[in-house]
Description:
- There is one protein chain.
- The protein is α/β, with parallel strands linked by helices.
- The protein has one domain: Formyl transferase, N-terminal domain (Rossmann fold, 3-Layer(aba) Sandwich).
- The chain contains six helices and nine strands, in the order βαβαβαβαβαββαββ.
- The chain has a seven-stranded mixed beta sheet. The chain has a two-stranded antiparallel sheet with strand order 8-9.
- α1 packs across α6.
- The model has no long low-confidence stretch (mean pLDDT 95).
Amino acid sequence: MRLGILISGRGSNFEAIANAIARRKLDAEIAIVITNRAGSPGLDIARERGIPVRIIASQGLEREAYDKLLVEELQTHDVDLVCLAGFMRLLSAHFVRAFPNRVLNIHPSLLPSFPGLDAQRQALEHGVKITGCTVHFVDEFLDSGPILIQAAVPVLDDDTVETLSARILAQEHSIYSTAIQYLVEDRVTIEGRRVRIREDERP
């Protein structure tokens, strides 16, 4: 499966996916890494690994106009699955229609709780005892697509945004590659908002 990775910043989830591929825990290849920010540190990671990169600046462009540029670039590289890895833009319906049920995002909370920015801070301020992270299919709305996989992370009494974020990120790095592998193995069925994962039939 050919992956297109969209990033805006450091690209730690992109790097975790690339590491899983290198360790042969994920049967996929990264066809292209695209960022909307020229200074994204994740670009250096991609270049060091010999992965094609493309900078498509988003400033000054309307959402759908920008997304058309993204779609064109991803299709040029024959991308099968689009993975958002800290991509700080809301995708349009045009983009989602171009890759139906083939766009994934990872979010640092147990959705539908705490969507949007600063999810870890939201969890602390709300006083929850358990939070976590979610890999979900992307629709044109904010963090609202069908949920594929989640991991729970306890909130400790002495947690700060930084300590909680670090523990959540460790789980993100684990479950994102697992979620992608489910799709590689064609084990995923979407029924309305419910996502079913067929049991692995291999010995």
